[in-house]
Amino acid sequence: MNAHQSLAIGQPIERFEAISRAAVESEAMVRFAGISKTYPAYRGKPGVNALENIDFAIPRGSITGVIGRSGAGKSSLVRLINGLEKPTTGHVIVDGRDISALAGRELRLAQRSIGMIFQHFNLLSSRTAADNIALPLEIAGWAKADIKTRVAELLALVGIADKHDRYPSELSGGQKQRVGIARALATRPSVLLSDEATSALDPQTTRAILDLLANINRELGVTIVLITHEMSVVRQLAKEVVVLDAGRVVESGHVADIFTHPKHPITQSFLAEVIGDSLPVSLASRIVAEPSAGGQAVIRLQVRGAGAGDTLVVRLARELGLDVSLLSARIDEIGGQHVGSLVLGIPLGSSGRDDAATRTLAFLSQHQFPAEHLGYVA
Ligand SMILES: Nc1ncnc2c1ncn2[C@@H]1O[C@H](COP(=O)(O)OP(=O)(O)OP(=O)(O)O)[C@@H](O)[C@H]1O
Ligand SMILES: [Mg+2]
């Protein structure tokens, strides 16, 4: 806004308009400014502060993940974007317009440029796939012939041209979500909101739907806001991520940065789910607190960063002269970065003494790999 104000001084009007349009063009697709949302108390139930101090932007053309536990405020946040809820304080700017200030016909018109898909698809069971997709076009007053052409185009876009006349009860979950996506895109929105759209689907179907969303983002330039409680969904699709906890943004940024350097405990716990910081059961059950002769110290180290860990174990073995064994390893590549954990077995020697573990931890700390001593195996 400051840029606009400074431009306004001494600028001819036409020029100001052209520049300010360009500025809006390059701006965020969605901006939350000073948002809080309180659901009021009623019938003896206390009020709920669902969102507090929300200030962030969703870049135009991005796929931005919003992740949080149940009750974190994710759905409240998306309902603010499409104006289904009004903020208690602050403004939600969508595509340069304050959607929180709109009502009636103006709001309905603005909502046509914001599509939404849902966990349970929300299709009308009495309408065929084609007629479900046609619904928003009928509401928008399109001519019959135009609707027909557009629906055929959309069915092809989402890969179910052959399901034109099928009713929802005759479709699989993945196919129903494809109908949901086609319906959401019917009026050519600039933003697509997805509230747990893959949560009811199996992993393979989830992947196919996420691939479809990636294509839509790439081909049509639609900004996608992806609400989820699963880090694996964020990892597969998003470039930006916002971590929500108890109604507040606790961390946000590029997915690759957040995955390699998670700061908040909530983010770390989400991450542990995808990168498998948990030990294989067969190993965990063998770990004890006391060392024994001929046994191994168990050390887990975290691997985060480009090329990290590739040669680490070899160097460790060579430099410390230890016969290191790899008890478990899980490394993923996320946004070009390696993220995961290695569990090493460090031989204690016949005395069962522990200085090999101490030396290993010192070596890892010196090379800036976070590591922890989990105990011993016989
Ligand atoms: N219409 C409402 N009236 C009163 N409280 C509400 C309403 N909608 C949501 N809440 C409360 O606001 C908080 C945030 O809810 P919200 O549905 O936004 O969370 P969520 O992150 O989407 O959770 P989930 O993952 O379970 O869908 C919760 O405490 C919830 O009980
Ligand atoms: Mg929700």
From TrEMBL:
Nucleotide-binding among keywords: yes
Pfam families named among the record's database cross-references: ABC_tran, NIL
Keywords: Amino-acid transport, ATP-binding, Cell membrane, Membrane, Nucleotide-binding, Translocase, Transport
Listed GO biological process terms: amino acid transport
One term of GO molecular function: ATP hydrolysis activity
A Gene Ontology term for the protein's cellular component: plasma membrane
Keyword Ribosomal protein attributed: no
InterPro entries: AAA+_ATPase, ABC_transporter-like_ATP-bd, ABC_transporter-like_CS, ACT-like_dom_sf, MetN_ABC, MetN_ABC_transporter-like, NIL_domain, P-loop_NTPase
Domain annotation ABC transporter: ranges: 30-271
Annotated function: Part of the ABC transporter FtsEX involved in cellular division. Important for assembly or stability of the septal ring. Involved in beta-(1-->2)glucan export. Transmembrane domains (TMD) form a pore in the inner membrane and the ATP-binding domain (NBD) is responsible for energy generation.
Database matches in PANTHER family: AMINO ACID IMPORT ATP-BINDING PROTEIN (PTHR43166), METHIONINE IMPORT ATP-BINDING PROTEIN METN (PTHR43166:SF30)
Protein family (similarity comment): Belongs to the ABC transporter superfamily.
Protein name as catalogued: Cell division ATP-binding protein FtsE
Organism annotation: Bradyrhizobium nanningense
